[in-house]
Write a structure and sequence with these properties.
By secondary structure, the chain is an alpha/beta fold. It folds into two domains: about 260 residues, Spore Coat Polysaccharide Biosynthesis Protein SpsA, Chain A, CATH 3.90.550.10; about 80 residues, Hexapeptide repeat proteins (UDP N-Acetylglucosamine Acyltransferase, domain 1), CATH 2.160.10. Helix content is about 20%, strand content about 25%. It is built from ten helices and 28 strands. Strands 1, 4, 5, 6, 8, 9, 10, 11 and 12 form a nine-stranded mixed β-sheet that branches. Strands 14-17-20-23-26 form a five-stranded parallel β-sheet, with no helix packed on it. The chain has a five-stranded parallel β-sheet with strand order 15-18-21-24-27, with no helix packed on it. The radius of gyration is 21 Å and the shape is elongated. The model has no long low-confidence stretch (mean pLDDT about 85).
């Protein structure tokens, strides 16, 4: 019988992702040649246990999310048996109210939570924009071993951009004694990665309390629980990156070219699943030159690609030069064009002989072309 339910929530950081979410949900931002951001938290959940309910909080750009998840079969889930449900979400963000974890999204889906069977003991809440391969099975075992009411996952000495009121934790002997935002103190604590485990009974009590008090942020309610509940921290080892801006997306993408990062994210024992697609193998022309790059199936390369990521069905034509760039699905770089330090969104086109480059550390984003 299922004893856990996983909820993937919207990210409050999406305001800094600019054109990348103009036509798509934050969940489905392309990453790593063939993946989407949601593939990481969703795979972490399904690797935890075979007996699992998963609810995904949608957004007002939900079409790409529905298309990506389909019936859930690529993650060993099924909508027919209610293993996977897309829930109503993102109402607070749409009207300009930003919270770390929106209580309103939970309230809007109260029926889903009230219908959970008595066998469900834990609710795992996960942000959709956290790139990490997390052993959630061990997290649950530690949570139960500590007899914790809540276990909040964090990264010590986080190496990444801190913005948008990131939440930090103060801990004593593993217990969370304070929760604060980075702008509230000069010194930061351990970075909360928008992922936690909570006892179902406590979650339902918090939901009822939120309705009475009109609070919008789940983290604010957790602050009030620190004295009365056992809130523990769980340090995530290894690679973690929060995608909270165009810059962080660009950096995390190119970090995949580092062998240690790639091995850690794509472990054999805990796979990262994604939507399956039948593509022809990558085609390399006689003039192709590829160095330190990831090139997905279905791509055609006739030019030079260095330190870059090329997605499915992208095309690099003869004489084109790509360096330190991300070329998304269906994008085309025509003959003799040069692309350096750039992100080409889906179906974007760089015309013949065009020169696209950034002289700063910030990448140039070439908007997607709708087809």
């Amino acid at each position: 019988m299922k004893k856990a339910v996983g909820i993937i929530v919207n990210s409050s950081n999406q305001l800094d992702l600019d054109e990348l979410i103009q036509y798509r949900s934050i969940h489905t931002i392309p990453f790593g040649g063939k993946y989407r951001l949601i593939d990481f938290p969703l795979s972490n959940l399904v690797n935890m246990t075979a007996d699992l309910y998963v609810g995904v909080m949608g957004s007002y750009n939900y079409r790409s999310l529905v298309d990506h998840l389909k019936q859930g079969q690529d993650w060993n889930l099924s909508r027919k048996s209610n293993d996977l449900l897309i829930l109503q979400g993102d109402r607070s963000a749409k009207i300009g109210r930003v919270s770390r974890i929106s209580i309103q999204d939970f309230i809007d889906n109260s029926a889903f939570f009230h219908k959970l069977p008595d066998t469900v003991e834990h609710i795992v809440i996960s942000g959709t924009n956290v790139i990490a391969n997390i052993d959630m099975k061990h997290v649950i075992e530690t949570h139960e071993g500590n007899d914790a009411d809540v276990t909040m996952l964090y990264k010590h000495d986080y190496q990444g951009m801190i913005m948008n009121k990131e939440v930090h934790l103060d801990l004593e002997e593993g217990k969370v004694i304070d929760i604060f935002e980075n702008h509230e103190r000069e010194t930061s604590g351990d970075l909360f990665i928008d992922t936690l485990v909570i006892k179902k009974n406590l979650f339902m009590e918090i939901l009822d309390e939120a309705k009475k008090r009109g609070l919008i942020d789940f983290i604010d309610l957790l602050k009030h629980c620190l004295d009365d509940c056992k809130v523990m921290g769980y340090a995530i080892p290894g690679y973690v990156k929060i995608i909270n801006s165009i810059q962080s997306y660009y950096e995390a993408s190119l970090e995949l070219l580092e062998c240690d990062v790639h091995r850690e994210l794509f472990k054999n024992e805990r796979k990262i699943y994604t939507k399956a697609k039948d593509n022809h193998p990558t085609v390399y022309g006689k003039d192709a030159s590829v160095k330190q790059a990831m090139v997905a199936s279905g791509a055609v390369v006739n030019g030079t690609v260095e330190q870059s990521i090329v997605f499915r069905n992208a095309r690099i034509e003869k004489g084109a030069k790509i360096k330190n760039s991300i070329i998304m699905q269906g994008a085309i770089v025509e003959e003799e064009a040069v692309v350096v330090n750039a992100i080409l969104d889906k179906n974007a086109v760089v015309k013949k002989g065009q020169f696209i480059t950034s002289s700063t550390t910030e990448p140039i984003l070439i908007k997607r072309k709708e087809q």
